[in-house]
Write a sequence for this structure.
């Protein structure tokens, strides 16, 4: 008769939890080890800035203007594309001869073709477009915004991509957190969703060509696009241009509440720390292992990022809660 000895049950209860906890701690250590390695890799930078040429669009003011000045200090050769003569003159006065200013209208093919010759490309040019509820706006409001924010970006990229490809360079496109979740005026939001989609397509298409494509997604910052007075004027203008039926449906009280809501939102969310966006551009251009996406700003990271991961019913409830109610809805 064979006697099978069993380990006492108490031994399993003692040993198994120890093994489970050990595996858990090993996994935690591996995770933090990998995370630390990735963080360290992000701090490594390319060198030889003086031999690299970068084109930045939308340099009259804001992020583009600040980026040109920073790249100049770092030693890059920069083509600063401005829309206005005044913007080009301002950069000429404060920058070194490494910065070459040119007037570039991203809506015009002939203007784009005259500017060829660089290593890296930063598509920063953009406008807020007409601000208002979707049924206030006309087709031309959408066309005007898309022409610059999306189609202009595509045309500039197509023009310069052969040179970027030749230098195994980088394309940095400016999208927005509003290209991930809708919380703004339709023309602007649609244009930024388009930038996100186009950039994803381009990145995967160029993967084997050694051209890297990076997306900067700023939250709300205090620039000309988020100027409360400009937003107020655009809202008022688009409402007055709407049809009489639309104006009757919403009512002037609704317009006033929308204006107040927009001002309060911008006062809370719009950050004065615009250097954060410039730093993201700089990292995308100079890091040896740059990120694919840069969500920039406290609102983008801690308010909007969680929102776009929630079920739509919850994000709709949170974002739509503060919107005023049209006059006709009150009557029902």
């Amino acid at each position: 008769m064979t006697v099978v000895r069993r380990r006492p049950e108490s031994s399993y209860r003692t040993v198994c939890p120890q093994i489970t906890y050990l595996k858990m701690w090993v996994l935690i250590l591996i995770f933090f080890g990998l995370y630390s390695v990735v963080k360290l890799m992000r701090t490594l930078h390319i060198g030889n800035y003086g031999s690299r040429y970068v084109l930045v669009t939308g340099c009259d003011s804001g992020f583009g203007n600040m980026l040109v000045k920073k790249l100049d200090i770092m030693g890059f050769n920069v083509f600063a594309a401005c829309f206005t003569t005044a913007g080009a003159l301002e950069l000429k006065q404060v920058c070194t001869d490494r910065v070459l200013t040119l007037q570039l209208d991203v809506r015009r093919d002939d203007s784009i073709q005259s500017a060829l010759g660089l290593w890296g490309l930063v598509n920063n040019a953009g406008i807020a477009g007409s601000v208002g509820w979707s049924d206030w706006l006309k087709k031309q409001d959408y066309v005007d915004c898309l022409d610059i924010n999306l189609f202009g970006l595509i045309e500039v990229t197509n023009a310069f991509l052969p040179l970027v490809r030749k230098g195994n360079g980088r394309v940095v496109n400016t999208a927005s957190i509003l290209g991930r979740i809708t919380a703004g005026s339709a023309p602007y939001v649609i244009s930024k969703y388009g930038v996100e989609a186009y950039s994803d397509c381009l990145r995967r298409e160029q993967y084997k060509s050694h051209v890297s494509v990076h997306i900067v997604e700023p939250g709300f910052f205090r620039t000309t696009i988020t100027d409360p007075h400009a937003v107020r004027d655009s809202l008022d203008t688009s409402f007055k241009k709407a049809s009489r039926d639309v104006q009757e449906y919403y009512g002037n009280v609704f317009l006033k509440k929308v204006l107040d809501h927009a001002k309060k939102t911008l006062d809370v969310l719009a950050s004065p720390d615009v250097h954060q966006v410039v730093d993201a551009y700089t990292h995308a251009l100079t890091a040896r292992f740059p990120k694919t996406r840069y969500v920039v700003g406290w609102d983008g990271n801690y308010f909007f990022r969680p929102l776009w991961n929630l079920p739509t019913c919850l994000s709709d409830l949170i974002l739509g809660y503060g919107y005023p109610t049209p006059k006709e809805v009150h009557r029902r």
